[in-house]
Design goal:
heterodimer, A: about 120 residues, mainly beta, 7-stranded mixed β-sheet, about 0% helix, globular, B: about 110 residues
Chain lengths: ~120, ~110
């Protein structure tokens, strides 16, 4: 059974750095072809893809947010970490992590975690 | 960046009716790397269709996807109460960003 769960702060202040952790089970990020995405959704709005890390440490970022994002993995802990610098109220959203395979869309999603940016 | 435009924004239908949702891309989606998701309030998206027309594991055959290039369609053959939700398309071709459409809400008429 594949599960993913996001964790991190629920409230951050403007200009701070957000660090979110995706802890997963039921698969390994050392298996060829496997990747983990981060996707966010502002309240009442559409989904926005943020970043992806593959089993071979290949990393991809949204061009519009590239300068603010860092994605890393810890295969031994079954975790993927996303950092986003210089947080702003417009970054208030539910952040999801999701598992995919190479050439396929994200098929398994975490429940999401709501992050509010406010002073 | 490929922009996906979904129409209509809201679809008001009755249970038992057929729903037809459209997703149009600003440029051709490579290898029909187009997916459809269903999202209910407070839940994560659920993958319905990948590769434009292949149903994901466990998805009933009332959901079907068609299309290629820049025009894609999701059809729900007979709406049941649990099908009223928001539906998103996503392109996941060779290069990021792997964009989503703005969503179509299917509501009870």
């Amino acid at each position: 059974q594949i599960t993913l769960k996001e964790s991190g702060p629920t409230l951050v202040k403007p200009t701070q750095t957000l660090t979110l952790t995706c802890t997963f089970s039921g698969f390994s990020l050392s298996t060829s072809g496997v990747g983990v995405d981060w996707i966010r959704q502002p309240p009442g709005k559409a989904l926005e893809w943020l970043a992806l890390i593959y089993w071979d440490d290949d990393k991809r970022y949204s061009p519009s947010l590239r300068s603010r994002l860092t994605i890393t993995k810890d295969t031994s802990k079954n975790q993927v970490v996303l950092s986003m610098t210089n947080m702003d109220p417009v970054d208030t959203a539910t952040y999801f992590c999701a598992k995919r395979r190479l050439g396929a869309p994200p098929a398994y999603w975490g429940q999401g975690t709501l992050v509010t940016v406010s002073s | 960046e490929i922009v996906l435009t979904q129409s209509p924004g809201t679809l008001s239908l009755s249970p038992g009716e057929r729903a037809t949702l459209s997703c149009r891309a600003s440029q051709s989606v490579s290898s029909s790397y187009l997916a459809w998701y269903q999202q209910k309030p407070g839940q994560a998206p659920r993958l319905l269709i990948y590769g434009a027309s292949s149903r994901a594991t466990g998805i009933p055959d009332k959901f079907s996807g068609t299309g290629s290039g820049t025009d894609f369609t999701l059809t729900i053959s007979r709406l049941e109460p649990e099908d009223f939700a928001v539906y998103y398309c996503q392109q996941y071709g060779s290069s990021p960003p792997w964009t989503f459409g703005q969503g179509t809400k299917v509501e009870i008429k």
